[in-house]
Amino acid sequence: HVQLVESGGGSVQAGGSLRLSCVASGYSRNCMGWFRQAPGKEREAVAVIYTSDYAMSYYHDSIKRRFTISQDNAKNVTYLQMNSLKPEDTAVYYCAAIETSRLLCGLGTAFRYWGQGTQVTVS
User: Fold this and answer.
1) Are the C-beta atoms of 16 and 82 separated by less than 8 Å?
2) Distance between terminal CA atoms of the chain?
3) Rg of the chain over all Cα atoms, to the nearest angstrom
4) β-pair partners for 106
5) Which end of the chain has fewer CB atoms < 10 Å from its terminal CB, N or C?
6) What is the DSSP string of the chain?
7) Cα separation of 25 and 59, whole Å?
8) Environment class of residue 16 by beta-carbon count within 10 Å: exposed (0-12), middle (13-18) or buried (19+)?
9) Rounded distance, CA 100 to CA 97, Å?
10) Nearest residue to 99 via CA among 112, 81, 116
């Protein structure tokens, strides 16, 4: 079993930055993702990283070159560095995990484990 705990959310002005952290307890998984859900909208994948061997990362088009996902395998922490934040980035951000192959780790992956979410508000 994996428990995911997110932190780092908050309120920030447009153009500002935040860094989200996701601490995974229990057996680590090699495919980690960040998702977000805005009020009245479906949850969407923001960024995904395959953490085994050669790390691969994938990003939603709306956040490319603004957000960066990274992994500290020694600490079992997945980060989402968010720069140049926009009001449309306002959402609850969720961390997710699954053990899978590199080919199946991507924005369309059906993740198995989920955190409780952290609110990000950009004004």
Assistant:
1) no
2) 37
3) 13
4) none
5) N
6) -EEEEEE--EEE-TT--EEEEEEEEES--SEEEEEEE-TTS--EEEEEEE-SSS-EEEE-GGGTTTEEEEEETTTTEEEEEE-S--GGG-EEEEEEEE---TTT-STT---SEE---EEEEE-
7) 25
8) middle
9) 9
10) 112
